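Input record (one chain):
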Amino acid sequence: MTVSSGRPITIVMIEDDEGHARLIEKNIRRAGICNRIVAFRLGGEAMAWLMNGGLAHGSGLVMLDLNLPDIGGVEILRKIKTDPQLRRLPVVVLTTDDDQREIQRCYDLGCNVYVTKPVEYESFAAAIRKLGLFLEVIELPPVDPPDRGGRVKGTRP
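The corresponding structure, as predicted from the sequence alone:
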């Protein structure tokens, strides 16, 4: 998975359940995705990494669980989509919550894809492999690095 410039895309996985994180990575790899995966168990750590240029001069995609122990996934989604540097960063919500109000709220906040994790192992594995196939064909924009004054290129002071 690369952007049109040929740069590789980093997958930022924010998932507190180690078993789910291993299953997600394993099945993304089975789908043929060899991109770098940077995994975080805490939303605060992930946001600090993203806000401090973790994706500088590259592109990324966030795979976000909503049920995290420190900062809720909805709040992380809100922060990403309102930050001038990160707002174009695609966010795939990957969670066990299938409540229609929660799904609507995430789309209203700007999530790009909402996937409900099936409870049964094989169904979960199959869903992640399908997501991996989807990731193979999408086009992603680069993340806008801040200029030396801390502003995003193309924005006014």
